[in-house]
C-alpha cells in the first residue's frame, strides 16, 4: 500500500510542477515505484517538464469517466525502467470535470500498485485544489522566500490543517543566496517561523532548472546541479532518511550555524 | 373617581420622573386595562411642557418584546411620558445563555492563518500567532500569547471598553467597536507586551501593558487571593 502526497502552494509559479517532476524522478531513482498525477486540468504541463507530452493517449478525465482503465492512461517514463509513471491531466476540459470523490477512489486504486503517488496541485484554492487534496495522505507545501508566496502558503496550510490529520511540510524553492544574505529576501528562518510547519527541504534557484525543464529532462537527472542535489535530498527525506539541509554557501560558516539552528541542533 | 380594589398599577413620583410599578400576579389584559385607566385620570402635565421620564418596573413578570412595545405605546399615548426603561427580574433562558457567552473567555491554541476568521462572543485567549490575513473577532477583549500580525477586532458588537493585548503587537489593523487603526508604514520598534484601547480622545492607542490596570480596572475579575 503506497502513500499519496499532494504538492501544493496556493500561489502560482512557485514551482509545484517542477518540484513534482523532480521529486518523482528522484524517488524513482531510489528504486521506488512512483506515479505522478497532474490535476491541473485545462492547463497541464507536468508532461512537458518530464518530456512525455507527445506520448499521451488517455488522460485523467478519461479515467474518471470510465472511458479507459487507469493503466491505459498511465504514461511510462522509459528512462526509469518501469518505476516512474504519469497520469496526465486533460487539456480540453476544466477543473469541474472531476470531483473529489472520484479522485479519492482513483488514488485509492493507484496506491495498491505504487509506493508513492505524487499529486501535482493547480494554483488556487478552488475546485482543482479540492480535487488534488482529496486523495492525499499528506501534503508538501512549496513556497518561495517572497511575502506574497508565504502569505498564500499560510492560507493553504490553514486549509490543509482542516482536511488532513498529518501536518503539512514545507519546501522553500528558488532561494537566491545573495539576496538572502543582503536581507532583501526573507530568510529561511523567517519563513519557517511564520508558517510554523516542519521544513522538508530548500532548493536553490538555478538557471539549469529552466534549461532542463525546456528539454523535458528533470534537473534531478543532472548530478552536478545544486538544485538536483537538493531534490534528491528531499526525496530521501520523504523515504524516511534523515539528511541535513544543504549549506547555501560553502565559504560562510555563519550560515551553517543558521542551518543547524533550523534543524534544532545547537 | 372609581374605587379600585386591586392595585395592579402603582404610580410613584420621584425627582427623576415617575415609576410605574406593575403587579406581576394579575393577567396581562387586566393590567393593560388598568394602566390605560389610571393614566387617563391622575396626572396633569407640567407647565413648561418638558417630557417627563417614566420607569416601568415589571417585577417578576416576563414581558415579551411585543408586550414591552405595547406598554410603552400606552404610556406614551396616554400622558406623553417618555419611557426610559422597563425593568424585570425575569429573562429568558436564551438571554441568560447569551449573557454567559458574553462573559465567557474562549481559548484556542494554534495559529490563525491567512484567510481564517475566528469569532467569539466573549473574551478570547489565543495561545499562538495571528498571521497576516488572519482575523480574530471578539465581543469582548482579545488576549494573544504570541504575535499579532493580522487583524484583531475587540468589542465587535459595540463594546468600546474592550482591549487588545498581545505579546508581540505588529498588527495589520486594530479594530475596537467601530474604531479602526492601521499599522504605521514604517516602524521598527519591538512592540513587546502591549495593549490597545480607545482613549479619551476616541482613538485607538497602543501602550505598554502596565497601563491596563489603571485604564481598565474592570478587567480584573479576581477577588481576594493570598
TrEMBL record, chain A:
CDD domains: MinD. Keywords: ATP-binding, Cell cycle, Cell division, Nucleotide-binding, Septation. Pfam families: AAA_31. Residues 3-157 form the AAA domain. InterPro entries: AAA_dom, MinD, MinD_FleN, P-loop_NTPase, ParA/MinD_ATPase. The keyword Repressor does not apply. NCBIfam families: minD_bact (TIGR01968). Belongs to the ParA family. MinD subfamily. ATPase required for the correct placement of the division site. Cell division inhibitors MinC and MinD act in concert to form an inhibitor capable of blocking formation of the polar Z ring septums. Rapidly oscillates between the poles of the cell to destabilize FtsZ filaments that have formed before they mature into polar Z rings. This is Septum site-determining protein MinD. The gene is minD.
Amino acid at each position: 500500500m503506497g502513500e499519496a502526497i499532494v504538492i501544493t502552494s496556493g500561489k502560482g509559479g512557485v514551482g509545484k510542477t517542477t518540484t513534482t517532476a523532480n521529486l518523482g524522478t528522484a524517488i524513482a531513482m531510489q528504486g521506488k515505484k512512483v506515479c505522478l498525477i497532474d490535476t491541473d486540468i485545462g492547463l497541464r504541463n507536468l508532461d512537458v517538464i518530464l518530456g512525455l507530452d507527445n506520448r499521451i493517449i488517455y488522460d485523467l478525465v478519461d479515467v474518471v469517466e470510465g472511458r479507459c482503465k487507469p493503466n491505459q492512461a498511465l504514461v511510462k517514463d522509459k528512462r526509469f525502467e518501469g518505476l516512474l509513471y504519469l497520469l496526465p491531466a486533460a487539456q480540453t476540459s476544466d477543473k469541474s470535470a472531476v470531483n473529489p470523490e472520484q479522485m479519492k477512489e482513483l488514488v485509492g486504486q493507484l496506491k495498491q500498485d505504487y509506493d508513492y503517488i505524487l499529486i501535482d496541485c493547480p494554483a488556487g484554492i478552488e475546485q482543482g485544489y479540492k480535487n488534488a487534496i482529496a486523495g492525499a495522505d499528506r501534503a508538501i507545501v512549496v513556497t518561495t522566500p517572497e511575502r506574497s508566496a508565504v502569505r498564500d502558503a499560510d492560507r493553504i496550510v490553514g486549509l490543509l490543517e482542516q482536511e488532513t490529520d498529518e501536518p503539512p511540510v514545507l519546501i522553500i524553492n528558488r532561494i537566491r543566496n545573495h539576496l538572502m544574505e543582503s536581507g532583501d529576501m526573507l530568510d529561511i528562518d523567517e519563513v519557517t517561523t511564520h508558517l510554523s510547519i516542519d521544513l522538508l527541504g530548500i532548493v536553490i534557484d538555478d538557471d539549469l532548472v529552466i534549461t532542463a525543464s525546456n528539454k523535458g529532462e528533470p534537473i534531478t537527472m543532472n548530478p552536478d546541479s545544486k538544485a538536483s542535489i537538493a531534490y534528491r535530498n528531499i526525496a530521501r527525506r520523504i523515504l524516511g532518511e534523515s539528511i541535513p539541509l544543504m549549506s547555501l554557501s560553502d565559504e560562510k560558516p555563519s550560515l551553517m550555524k543558521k542551518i543547524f539552528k533550523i534543524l534544532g541542533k545547537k | 373617581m372609581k374605587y379600585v380594589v386591586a392595585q395592579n398599577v402603582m404610580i410613584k413620583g420621584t425627582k427623576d420622573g415617575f415609576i410605574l410599578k406593575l403587579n406581576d400576579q394579575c393577567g396581562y389584559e387586566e393590567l393593560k386595562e388598568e394602566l390605560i385607566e389610571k393614566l387617563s385620570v391622575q396626572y396633569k402635565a407640567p407647565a413648561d411642557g418638558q417630557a417627563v421620564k417614566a420607569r416601568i418596573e415589571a417585577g417578576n413578570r416576563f414581558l415579551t418584546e411585543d408586550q414591552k412595545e405595547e406598554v410603552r405605546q400606552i404610556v406614551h399615548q396616554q400622558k406623553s411620558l417618555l419611557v426610559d426603561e422597563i425593568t424585570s427580574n425575569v429573562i429568558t433562558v436564551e438571554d441568560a445563555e447569551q449573557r454567559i457567552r458574553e462573559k465567557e473567555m474562549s481559548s484556542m491554541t494554534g495559529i490563525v492563518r491567512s484567510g481564517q476568521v475566528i469569532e467569539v462572543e466573549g473574551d478570547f485567549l489565543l495561545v499562538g500567532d495571528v498571521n497576516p490575513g488572519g482575523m480574530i473577532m471578539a465581543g469582548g477583549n482579545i488576549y494573544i500569547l504570541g504575535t499579532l500580525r493580522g487583524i484583531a477586532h475587540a468589542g465587535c458588537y459595540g463594546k468600546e471598553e474592550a482591549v487588545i493585548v498581545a505579546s508581540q503587537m505588529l498588527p495589520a489593523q486594530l479594530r475596537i467597536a467601530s474604531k479602526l487603526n492601521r499599522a504605521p508604514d514604517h516602524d521598527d520598534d519591538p512592540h513587546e507586551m502591549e495593549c490597545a484601547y480607545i482613549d479619551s480622545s476616541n482613538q485607538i492607542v497602543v501602550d505598554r501593558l502596565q497601563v491596563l490596570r489603571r485604564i481598565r480596572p474592570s478587567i480584573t475579575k479576581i477577588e481576594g487571593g493570598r
